[in-house]
Amino acid sequence: MFFDLNVPYSPDDSDVPHTLNFLAELGYTTVALSHTISGKLPSSLTPPPLPSNPPKSLQLLTRLNLTLSDPAQNQRLANLTQAYDLVALRPTNEKALLNACTSLECDVISLDLSVRLPYHFKFKMLSAAISRGIRLEICYGPGITGSGLDARRNLIGNAASLIRATRGRGIIVSSEAQRALSLRAPWDVINLACVWGLSQERGKEAICEEARKVTALAKLKRTSWRGIVDIVHGGESVNREQTTTKKNAPAKEDTASPSSNAADTLKRKASLGSEPAEEPEKALSKREMKRRAKKARLESRGAHAVDT
């Protein structure tokens, strides 16, 4: 299963069906359609409607990309997890990144690595996010499209420093592709991750296992309380007729049991009346043969003494 958790989406975009069909042809199974908001959150947030005729092999998710510049700016992140399948933060400075890694509730921290960042990645700060179940996202789309050589150079350098700071753990790779021509096949993405410094195994986990963990943890946050208490049974009332039939079922079996017991007793009596088959004699051991020979010699000596 291959995941692409960042595909920009707008209901008015006519290229969205072509992009989704191309993703299905490339072998992706789960795609998150992202909606970006910068600044203050509006009063009511609802995800845009999904495409009407997506490919049957694709599982579509809704995602919100929230640009974060001031940590005290957005205080309703817990409510967003109920409206969207995934909530991603894009911090623009080191203070916002530190707050997102340590205290803010989100599923993904997505960084714009195509620009020159004014700060360095620190292991202690990023490991705090990974320990909380938050994954760090690298988007290869801005470095592949015609954004210029600077964007490609910044993407390679920032991705390498991010992988070095995280020790290659807790990283997912997404496309953030505006058009179908910017998409790459899963194994091409793994090769890109190898260029940035990830091993082939970690590169495959970045678009398979780690991305699957993001969706699973986000679902737990929506359907349970802090991922601990979950609704297993809805509390539907059990039909009384079904319970009565289940209670009466053993009685019917008991009524039919005497005949079966009588047949069993007849079979047992017949088996007892029949003579048991003779078991073949076991071969004598050497010790037993010597004991019998000695006994025969002693008896022959005793008989000879009586004759004399």
UniProtKB/TrEMBL annotation:
InterPro entries tied to this protein: Pol/histidinol_Pase-like, RNase_P_p30
GO terms of biological process kind: tRNA processing
Ranges for region Disordered: 239-308
Localisation: Nucleus
A GO cellular component annotation in the UniProt record: nucleolar ribonuclease P complex
Entry keyword annotation includes GTP-binding: no
MF terms in GO: RNA binding
Alphabetized SUPFAM superfamilies for the sequence: PHP domain-like
Basic and acidic residues: compositionally biased ranges: 296-308
Family: Belongs to the eukaryotic/archaeal RNase P protein component 3 family.
Name of the protein in its database record: Uncharacterized protein
Species: Penicillium argentinense
